[in-house]
Amino acid sequence: MNIARAVFGFWFTYVVGVWFCWGLYGSRFGRATGALQGNNWMAAIGVGISYLLVAWLLVRFVVLPVLRQKGIDDGDFTPKGNRIGRIAGLFVASGAVSLSYALKYCPSGHGQVMPLVFCGVPLVSILYTLITKPPTKESWPPKYKALFGIGFFLLLVFGWHMIGLKEIAAEGHHGAAEPNQTWKLGTAWTVLSWGLYVALIHSGSVAMKGQDKLCKSLRALTHVGEGYFLVAVVALGIYVLFLSGAPAPSSFLSTEA
């Protein structure tokens, strides 16, 4: 029991959980798209439904009430926190939709897109924070600026190299046909929107009422579920059913592997 408390009470445990879950996201999404006859939009709708169930329904109507009953949660939603949280939710949901497009049309799939996303998102988040809340000279000495500049440059070089891999992947997957290059735009929007999401969701949680940081973060998370519902379920569902012209795969609700 003491070991379990030590492990699950340590914040880095949950960072490792994010690495694991988000690390598998690209490959699992690609498999889902294949099972849905290549319909990446339906796979994205499935992601939106999952976020609605977990981040909104489960957190808002189960987790938060239980924490309040146990005396842990003493806070509440605030207008400012709701506003920032909803903006963050719209950003992350739109980024997920554009990511589904990039994963489908990138020559090498998740092996090329996901490294670009997860290298670019922290950079956008850090740059946004540096611009909106610049650090003091005492907390941002020249040596740290130099290290940040070197790291930023190395990640840009890595990103350029990953984009260059399209030429190799194109030969193996498409032969002489020129691959659809708009996957880069989808990847770029995912990087930008998810980078802003990381910074905004933190600001939204801080703006919530209460002393417990976990409960404040969970309140902000419920707006992520709302954003996924509006963008990845409602808006994307309308597009798939009425505008895309592509039939919805019959296996969407199937549980078979």
Question: What is the H/E string?
Answer: HHHHHHHHH
Q: What is the strand content?
A: under 5%
Average pLDDT rating: 83
What is the tally of helical segments? 9
Instruction: State the share of residues found in helices, binned by percent.
Output: over 70%
Estimated structural class? mainly alpha
Question: Rg to the nearest angstrom?
Answer: 20 Å
CA distance, first residue to last residue = 36 Å
- Would you count the extended β strands for me? 0
Mind summarizing the main beta sheet? none
Q: Quick one: overall form? A: globular
Task: Jot down its keywords.
257 residues; mainly alpha; globular
Can you characterise this structure?
The chain has 257 residues and is an all-alpha fold. The protein has 9 helices and no strands. It has helices at 2-8, 11-35, 40-69, 79-105, 110-132, 142-164, 166-174, 183-206, 213-243. Helix 4 (79-105) runs antiparallel to helix 8 (183-206), helix 5 packs antiparallel against helix 6 and helix 5 packs across helix 8. The two termini are 36 Å apart. 33% of the residues are buried.
How would you summarize this macromolecular structure in one to three sentences?
By secondary structure, this protein is mostly helical. The chain contains 9 helices and no strands.
Layout of secondary structure:
Layout: H1 2-8, H2 11-35, H3 40-69, H4 79-105, H5 110-132, H6 142-164, H7 166-174, H8 183-206, H9 213-243
Helix pairs in contact: 2-3, 2-5, 3-4, 3-9, 4-8, 4-9, 5-6, 5-8, 8-9
